[in-house]
Amino acid sequence: WGRRQAINSAATLEHCLQWMERLGWLENFDRVARGEAAPSRPGWQFSDSEVYKLLEAMAWDLARTPDAGLEATFDALVDRIGAAQDDDGYLNTAFGHPGRPPRWSDLAMGHELYNAGHLIQAGVARFRTGHDDRLVEIARRAADQICEEFGEGGLDAVCGHPEIEVALVESGRALGERRYLEQARLFIDRRGRGTLPVRPLLSAEYFQDDVPVREAAVLRGHAVRALYLTAGALDVAVETDDDELFDAVTRQWEHTVARRTYLTGGMGSRHQDEGFGDDWELPADRAYCETCAGVGSIMLAWRLYLATGEVRYADLIERTLFNVVATSPSADGTTFFYANPLQQREPGAPAGDGVNRRAEGGIRAPWFDVSCCPTNVARTLASLGSYVASVDTEGLALLQYAAGEVRAGGFVLRIDTAYPAEGIVRVHVVEAPDGVRRLRLRIPSWAPDASLRVGDGDPMPVEPGWADVTRRFAAGDRVVLELPTSPRFTWPDPRIDGVRDTVAVERGPLVLCLESTDLPDGISLDDVRAVTSSAPVAHGDGARLTATVDARETVDGAFPYGSRRPSATRTAPLDLALVPYHRWAERGPATMRVFLPVGE
Amino acid sequence: WGRRQAINSAATLEHCLQWMERLGWLENFDRVARGEAAPSRPGWQFSDSEVYKLLEAMAWDLARTPDAGLEATFDALVDRIGAAQDDDGYLNTAFGHPGRPPRWSDLAMGHELYNAGHLIQAGVARFRTGHDDRLVEIARRAADQICEEFGEGGLDAVCGHPEIEVALVESGRALGERRYLEQARLFIDRRGRGTLPVRPLLSAEYFQDDVPVREAAVLRGHAVRALYLTAGALDVAVETDDDELFDAVTRQWEHTVARRTYLTGGMGSRHQDEGFGDDWELPADRAYCETCAGVGSIMLAWRLYLATGEVRYADLIERTLFNVVATSPSADGTTFFYANPLQQREPGAPAGDGVNRRAEGGIRAPWFDVSCCPTNVARTLASLGSYVASVDTEGLALLQYAAGEVRAGGFVLRIDTAYPAEGIVRVHVVEAPDGVRRLRLRIPSWAPDASLRVGDGDPMPVEPGWADVTRRFAAGDRVVLELPTSPRFTWPDPRIDGVRDTVAVERGPLVLCLESTDLPDGISLDDVRAVTSSAPVAHGDGARLTATVDARETVDGAFPYGSRRPSATRTAPLDLALVPYHRWAERGPATMRVFLPVGE
Fold it and tell me: I need a labelling partner for B169 at 20 to 30 A (CA). Which of A72, A127, A523, B66 fits?
């Protein structure tokens, strides 16, 4: 993760900035500042939010590794944005200015509150990293204006794309503004009453305006919207001690994870509305699994973890970080996946330097028409440090494993690990707080044979869940966790039609996949069958698997349904290499499968 | 089919007319006739085409069963439409008039030529049923104007939605206008050169503007567009003796039927763009299988049959008629399916009397926002008689079996059958032409044990393909075909991931399905497993099947992927009733499956 953060810092931030300049998304702010009419403004109505997400990423990154050049870039960007803010705090380049539609004239699809939410989040990031400067002030004024406009007695409305809710609670917490929280509560309570006009071919489910949050049973509709909204609802529930709302969110998360989530942690199986499908509707090939939905799922699981301390939420965060968030950017941090399917049937065509539609074709692209994912990855990677550990009154919990230093709750810990390539995590206590403290380590649910060694003691078996070490800690103490990372078979529930009678291979927190790149010549990925009588074995950071290949009776039939049960002659076993899914498509166009049909 | 035609005539035509009046689609014509500005014209840009498709249906229906009331309704409708035609022949209510965008200003999405195509087809239907009256004249003027505008040296462009191509060839044939054919050829040749501007999130494939028709390997993009275009291309190939184009169409059809077609004959597996998916991308649950794509597939297969006389095309027409076209309308002909999935996971909610978005939810709806399907079903049912038989120099071929009279090629045949409920088809010769003639009967590919009895002779086994009787026929001759209609198992190609290790049951030309309505209480359709060691048996017009039910170890897991291979305890065998797929959802909201997972 450290390497990814460095690439994010060195390449991705600048990459995003250049694209936004090139496409005129920054110039939009200048034009508003100059008071010029902009009837043909470039960018979607939510392009402002990309700029704010980039600012948020920069703010986190500056706290991670201060850099004078980035600081100057950041300040200049804040100035350009600030110059476009109206006197009353309203800030948006697509509405409310000459040549543009009036403010709040298209709440369903206009994304005005969504944009403001990301501006406010950027302000929170700046504030939380120790600054109370111009960006914070801009965000505060924007939030104030929204409270004026949409508060009790004001506009009784919600935004088609949730985001303002989490932003208001977070800024309310950070800045100590209770009325921001109150405004978020209003937005949550107003939702689900069918007030948003529905576009042709969409439905109220699309924006979660079909059922009030506290009555809903499961996440549905547009996945990113559903996840952002539910994260905001949990924030409100926690801050207002609203048990009913809290239980509603927990119930929805449980149902969604049990029946509407991919092995990768990806969410959303429909392209049509970028939405959740029905229960068990989880096709591998048309998995949408938008990168931003992965980010949204982490936002929700993180809030649920903080509210409950339950390990299952941190488990899902790990799964999603390694297999969705890490899958989107290329190794060099300048091309991205928007959708993250678990099967690629046709090798993609290189995306080139242009604006890609959505990078659905198995090739990462430098930028998208709707380009929400690159900046969402950037802000997540830049703030990854926050997800590593948590503290409570008892002590410190280590949630995610990566080499580096953890400073929290009076502890300074040095973590030494090659995780996930290896399963050994060495925790060195550099500084310890006074008194008896609990140091707890997360044992992932995939690791039933883990062991923990405290100091020079013997390794003791630990079960998935928490491994606690409660004692008076001192500098020089050492705890070593060993997680087994042999590749393993993982079987889907038979109710998931799209992957019936298939098996996947995982290794530690990584989902693996088979790419056509690793097949012998002349063999189609369609015909490969996994042999499950022998376990897969470790190979590099992936695995090797025994497989056979169906030899077909005829080259092809005229119609793919017949009166005879298909039976194929199979080749002698082959040994095939699987690679981590997050690295797929790095070696050129390929077909790919996470789930392999079982051959015996 | 006769009953369906009667319902179509008695209920569907009037139903469509009333909806069009109610929604203002007819008033659009009156407004243009009056010269009134219509800045907020109701209906999509293609609503005119619905009116024309209804006219076409009425024209065919009037020829089938003359009716003075319908004739008067038809004439009045033609008058309203004619009044909106411009002096130069241009006729469109969405473009080219006060308050509307100019003519041909949005060829990609404006559907102007598409609308004109359906107008011309309605004119052809009227002409072919023995009238050369006002509608024919209106259509002729519209076609002339298009030739003026888009001919050699004119606008070098194509329409985003094909349809004008088939319409021009058909009217060129009917009216003897060679230049209509020439214009169609120009449209076919111009396509596939990327001239249509691509909307966000779509691609040139969507309108088959990615590759010239003669170079394409398979049907792709929006299924209805692809099928209409290819039908037009075949027409052009036949009329101009263009073997290259002919071979290209045959190749695309073969590839599409072998790898991109559902068991029902349905085409199009993607909701996002109403399009074809990749090879083998045929999920049962998200099958789009638009009703109109079924109509388009019949149009294409019919043209291929007429050009080649090959039985395989007539086979696909039968499959598609019984399992797509017949599935869309309800028994009473006033509600319709737009999409025809092969699996319904959640029972739908009743659609009510409103405009449904797309009836994807397992309930037929009276009308849709984009309401192309009801009128397409209506014109197909009204003209069904044309698909029953064909003649050539050798004699007559019977292609589809239904009770009724066939008059063609000098023959008058009375067909006596309860097909498909029963497999016996009795052909009585009422009149016969002079000389030796060939009477051929299609033996469907699903009927390997068919037999044919000529006169008082013994039944002789006949193979799938053609069964020919060549002789001097005389009134009173009799031929009896017996097709076995025991229910049978049908197995999908293992490369279709969405239905791996499942089986379907067919009976004669009918695909059957299992509805939750026919399950014992407390059993979920998700858990039913087909037992294939004993064959299904006939039951009503469906079948009875032996099945077991998975009993789960736990009510539900937290995450639907685990380290143990799923194995379920199964119940004792149950006997379940399957019904014809085309009748599903007639008994209230239900879940449904065509393909059942195999239990042993």
Answer: B66
A111 in the same domain as A67: yes
Residue A372's identity, in one-letter code, is: C
> Is the per-residue pLDDT at B359 higher than 60?
no
* Domain finish residue from A335, A366, A386: A386
Single residue among A435, A460, A482 that ends a domain in this structure: A482
Nearest-by-CA chain A residue for B495: A526
Is a pLDDT exceeding 70 seen at residue A556?
Answer: no
Nearest chain B residue (CA) to A274: B272
The parent domain of residue A120 ranges over 2-386
Residue B281 contacts A, CB cutoff 8 Å: yes
Tell me, yes or no, whether B140 lies in a domain.
yes
Q: Is B179 on the interface with A (CB under 8 A)?
A: no
- A540 lies in the same domain as A427: no
According to DSSP, residue B383 is labeled T
> For an interface test with B, which of A497, A507, A555, A569 has the most B Cβ atoms less than 10 Å from its Cβ?
A497
Interface of B with A in 532-591 (CB under 8 A): 532, 550, 556-566, 568
Q: Are residues B209 and B104 in the same domain?
A: no
Strands A395-398 and A436-443: what pairing? parallel
Query: Is residue A207 located within the same domain as residue A337?
Result: yes
Assign B199 to helix, strand or coil: coil
Answer whether A493 sits within 8 Å of B560, measured CB to CB: yes
In 3D, which of A460, A475, A535, A549 has the Cα closest to residue A505?
A: A535
For A261-313, write each residue's pLDDT tens digit.
Answer: 999 999 999 998 999 999 999 999 989 999 999 999 999 999 999 999 999 99
Q: Residue B555: what pLDDT? A: 46
* C-alpha–C-alpha distance, residues B311 and B315, integer Å: 6
Q: Residue B358 above 60 pLDDT?
A: no
Domain of A418, CATH number, reads 2.60.40.1180
The reply to whether B198 falls in a domain is: no
The CATH number linked to A266 is 1.50.10.20
| A515-548 confidence digits (pLDDT tens) | 999 999 989 999 999 999 999 999 999 999 999 9
Same domain, A249 and A191: yes
Same domain, A322 and A410: no
Q: Are A87 and A192 contained in the same domain?
A: yes
At A479-505, the pLDDT tens digits run 999 999 999 999 999 999 999 999 999
pLDDT in tens, A165-181: 999 999 999 999 999 99
B374 and B346 within one domain: yes
- Scanning every residue of chain A, which has its alpha carbon at the shortest distance from the alpha carbon of B260? A560
Annotate A227-256 with b (16+ C-beta within 10 A) or e (fewer). bbbbbbbbbbbbbbebeebbebbbebbebb
User: In total, how many domains does chain B have?
Assistant: 4
Question: Do A566 and B494 make contact, defined as CB atoms within 8 angstroms?
Answer: yes
Among A217, A559, A412, A102, which Cα is nearest to B491's? A559
Q: 3-state DSSP helix/strand/coil percent for chain A, to nearest 5?
A: 35, 20, 45
In a domain, B462, yes or no: yes
